[in-house]
Amino acid sequence: MEKREKLYEGKAKIIYATDEPDKVIAYYKDEATAFNAQKRELYQGKGVLNNKIASLFFELLKKHNIPTHYIKQLSDREMLVYKVEIIPVEVVVRNLATGSIVKRLGIPEKTEFKPPLIEFYLKNDELGDPIICYEHILAMNLAKPEEIETIKKLALKINEILSEFLKEKGILLVDFKLEFGRLPDGTIVLADEISPDTCRFWDLKTGERMDKDRFRLDLGDLTKYYEEVLKRLEGR
Ligand code: TMP
C-alpha cells in the first residue's frame, strides 16, 4: 500500500490517495475546532487517540454487520478506508437533549428522546451546517428517498449497538454525529469517524463530560478524558 497525494483536508482529518483507486488513507490530526472553526486548539496526541477509538468502533460495528468505509488501522494516526462519495448531510442522533437542540428549541436539558431523535444538517461550512429536513434533502437532490430510509435505519441501529457497548463501559451515549457515503456500486456505508470529537460521552456515574465539550465549554483536560475513553473501550 503506497501513500500518494493529498486529496482533501478537513478540520480534523486529511485524506490521501493510495496506489489503489478504491482506497484512501484517513490521517487524524491533533487540531480541535468548534463553532464552525471560530475556536481552535491543538491537543498533542488527540489524533492518535481518535484513530484508535474510531477503529475500535468501526470493528465493533463490522461485527454487527453494519456496512462502513473502514478497512484497517495502518498506523498511529492513519486508517485505510474505502473511497466513498460523501453525502453532504450530517446525521445527528440524540438520546438526551443537550447542546444545540436545547438552545434552538428550548427543550429542557436532559429530556429523554424515546425513540431517539434523528436530525439532518447540511454539511456546508460556509453556511455553518444549517439544520435541514427530509424535504430539503430531496429538493436539493442530496440523496434519494430509499437512501434516506437506509441512513435512518443504520443510524438507529448504530445508536443501539454503541449505546449498549458504552453502557457496559460506564459511559452514557448522549448524542453523536454520523456521515454516510456511497461506494461506486451505490451501496450506502458509514463513513467519516466516530470518536469523542463527534459524540457526547458522559460518565454514567458522575456525569462528567468525556468528549469534545471539554474544549467547546473550556472544561480542560481533553486528552486525559479521551485517554480514559480509550482505556475503558479496550477494557483496561
Ligand atoms: P449539537 O448539540 O452541537 O448539535 O451536536 C450534536 C452532536 O453532534 C454532538 O455529539 C457533537 C456532534 N457534532 C459534530 O460531530 N460536529 C459538528 O460540527 C457539530 C455541530 C456537532
Structural summary, described in words:
By secondary structure, the protein is α+β, with helices and mostly antiparallel strands. It folds into two domains: about 5-80, Phosphorylase Kinase, domain 1 (2-Layer Sandwich), CATH 3.30.200; about 85-220, ATP-grasp fold, B domain (D-amino Acid Aminotransferase, Chain A, domain 1, 2-Layer Sandwich), CATH 3.30.470.20. Helix content is about 30%, strand content about 35%. Strands 8, 9, 10, 11, 12, 13 and 14 form a seven-stranded antiparallel β-sheet that branches. A five-stranded antiparallel β-sheet has the order 1-2-3-7-6. A hairpin with a 5-residue loop joins strand 12 (about 170-180) and strand 13. The structure holds thymidine-5'-phosphate (TMP). Thymidine-5'-phosphate binds near residues 101, 129, 175 and 199.
Summary, kept brief:
The chain is α+β, with helices and mostly antiparallel strands. It has helices at 46-63, 100-105, 134-139, 145-168, 213-216, 222-233, and strands at 3-9, 13-18, 23-28, 31-34, 39-42, 70-73, 78-82, 85-86, 89-96, 112-122, 131-132, 171-182, 188-191, 199-203.
CATH class of the largest domain: Alpha Beta
CATH superfamily of the largest domain: ATP-grasp fold, B domain
Q: Sum up the overall morphology in one term.
A: globular
What's the SSE pattern?
EEEEEHEEEEHEEHHEEEHH
Average residue-wise pLDDT: 98
- CATH-defined fold name of the largest domain: D-amino Acid Aminotransferase, Chain A, domain 1
